[in-house]
Automatic annotation (TrEMBL):
This is LD-carboxypeptidase C-terminal domain-containing protein. It comes from candidate division WWE3 bacterium RIFCSPLOWO2_12_FULL_36_10. Pfam families: Peptidase_S66C. One of its GO terms (biological process) is proteolysis. Keywords: Carboxypeptidase, Hydrolase, Protease, Serine protease.
């Protein structure tokens, strides 16, 4: 983890080398616990488009990595997580890892990411990490689909242990 990140739309700037850097608060645990399992990773909106089709992935006993891009706002993110909770039993997952949301999403003290998690994950009893360095911010790490991850929130640990 680095001390800074950028989520500006640098590719739209006339000089893409000029980035707006922000303080990286690091990964955070929403639900405590330990888990080990195979990775399923997706953009949240894209995953939901697959709902009800033969292409929707099997999520039971998996660690789900989710991210969303700058086109989503806070209400959309809430709706997406609500839909996910209605089409799958989140307690059958081994864990959830959520990439950092871009500032364009509009989370604030009054309309917070945590409020969504409190609403939708209050009865979920699996480890949940968020504000991770993947998705649409820089730096980001690549997630090996089908690989294996280990989560231990007491140690603030997320480790990729097996690559396919």
């Amino acid at each position: 983890m680095t001390n800074e990140y950028a989520d500006d739309l640098y590719f739209l700037n006339p000089d893409p080398t000029k980035r707006i850097r922000k303080v990286n608060g690091g990964r955070k645990a929403y639900k405590l616990g330990k888990a080990k399992g195979q990775i399923v990773a997706s953009n949240l909106q894209t995953l939901l488009v697959l709902a009800g089709t033969k292409y929707f992935p099997e999520l039971n006993n998996k660690i789900l990595f989710l991210e969303e891009d700058e086109s989503a706002n806070t209400q959309m993110v809430h709706r997406f997580f609500t839909q996910l909770s209605q089409i799958t039993d989140l307690n059958k997952l081994r864990g959830i890892c959520i990439g950092r949301f871009m500032s364009q999403t509009g989370f604030s003290e009054k309309d917070s990411e945590i409020a969504i998690y409190e609403d939708l994950f209050k009865d979920v009893n699996i480890p949940i990490l968020y504000n991770l360095d993947f998705g649409h911010s820089d730096p980001l790490f690549t997630i090996p689909l089908g690989g294996e991850a280990v989560i231990d929130t007491s140690q603030n640990l997320l480790k990729i242990t097996n690559f396919i």
